[in-house]
Amino acid sequence: MFRKVLIANRGEIAIRVMRGCRELGLSPVAVYSEADRNALHVQMADEAYLIGPPPATESYLVIDRIIEAALVCGAEAIHPGYGFLAENAKFAKACEEQGLVFIGPPSAAIALMGDKTAARRAMQAAGVPVVPGIDHVVQDDEEAYQVVAGIGYPVMIKAALGGGGKGMRLVHHEQQLGDALRAARSEARSSFGDPAIYIEKYVPNPHHIEIQVLADAYGQVIYLGERECSIQRRHQKVVEESPSPLMTEDLRVQMGQAAVRAAQAAHYRNAGTVEFLVDEQRNFYFLEMNTRLQVEHPVTEMVTGIDLVQAQLRIADGGPLGVRQEDIRLNGAAIECRIYAEDPAYNFRPSPGRITVLQAPAGPWVRDERGVFAGSEVSPFYDPMISKLVVWGATRHEAIARMRRALGEYVVGGIKTTIPFHQWLMDDADFQAGRLDTGFIERRYRPQAVPPDQLAQDVALIAAALDHSQSTKQTAALPMSQGGHDGVSPWKLAGRVDLIRRRG
Amino acid sequence: MRLLVNAGGITHTVELDEGNGTGLIRVKVDEREYLIDATSPSPGLYSLVVHGKVYSALVWQRRSRREVQIGHWSTSVEVAPAQTQRPSAKPAAALGGRQEIAAPMSGRVIQVLVQPGQTVQEGESLVIIEAMKMETEIRAIARGQVKDLQVSVDTAVEAGQLLLVIEP
Lengths: 504, 168
What we know:
The complex is a heterodimer of chains A (504) and B (168). Chain A is of the alpha+beta class.
């Protein structure tokens, strides 16, 4: 097996991949931008290489720099993580050409699935149902108006090279179409370097359910159950779980087999995810295939017991799947909450800044994968996700209770995070009953307006007053203890203890 | 120390008697008295034991205001020493319709949609800021005339930084 793997990413996913590498005895190599010298993923690697200035377009997205770093350090393989270059066919191709193993699918499969309209055509040919819409890029506004007149409102405008909710706009009325086209094109250009868009019929309030697949180099393709990803804001996932509350044994087989057909049609290899929209009548439609590891892969790992990163490494190294479809059993329930540096009280607006406090949850069946620590600077340059908190329970009910417990332990100060939103969600009756769809947050979420108990209002006033008093005084004689040592430096404290001992 | 704390338009008096620094403090909120064991394990994090009940409060300071979060409830307050005027927790409307439009988050200005002197309508887009790969439109709260435009395309802005002023 290869011995050294360069990870062309940052943050929590770089660390997740490093863990997989280390458990297989492989040496992980990090790359970093000038903004990330202090980042956790750099500290956790065996080797690290600077690849450029803070903007991703000058560092994490520069193919040549990353390839060069891999060649310089003698890495045999590159893991792209998710985001950045993970679904960039040119990057996979560049790796192939330089004799580096790209830990992911062949570049041709990425190219096919990255072109959303070509993918729609391929899926239809393979007998996988797709959302009604057009199978080519919309040339201009005039054509857009014609297309929409044909399929009827509401419609979803999507970036042809899109994914991750970027460059997407929902349009209900003709008056909104012009603005939406402009906004979608602009976002498509800045996110994917190409303003091309296409249009699909909007399926109202669907479930977003995806199937994890694994394919080896010998034509073996299996599916590893589903992930329910309907809890979304701005068309991006916030909470994922497996199994889906909507799923039946029968539907799982149907969707799983469709996902396998999709992967086979793309001559797929390695880990991939086939995303579907599922309506209330349990009709399912192919949405897109993500040709990489997903953020939410841990929920599948928790219920199947399969380490997907290790599976990726083994498959990339030419190993067989080593597991058959009939061996796959889903055990219990797992939930993931994405902890974003965003303020849920203000429509999930970004909240970059320095993390001053970080107390992470732990305990039975809790897995928190962070890319940050107390003192970390959450940079406005990159994705706002700072951690993914995952729990497992024997039942969905137990998993929700455990997630509520873990979120209660999670304290992040200095920046705002989505933790309060997740706490609200775990208490929500509809979520608990499994009544969820992609319109859930918009329809139901209102930030908590009422104090949790009678005293809390006064406690808040007191805390604010104390904070004011602390910041105005700024003296050495703080009445409040800092860091648990009554404001006394641990060195002084140690000295005193030593003195007492000697006296004794 | 006697402070005025305005929350939700109501001003409360908070008296802190921090005593000899044992961590036990006597607090009076309006007419309600508490003996509280207070500590700050990390900057901005306050652990308060009140009548045996444990509270963790996170406090953020943004300009003159403080936001306090307890569990998944949060509230925005303004604190001022008692000897000065009541805290001026007044929204833009109270400034006689003058709107000081500030950046809601740090990021980069990618579009400026107005010019000085231009009249804008309520809800009209003024500036687009990009942070964390997301575009946020900053809109006018009420009709008015653009004055004092302080940013242009590519300006890097901090949270709370003044972008422009709109006068009625």
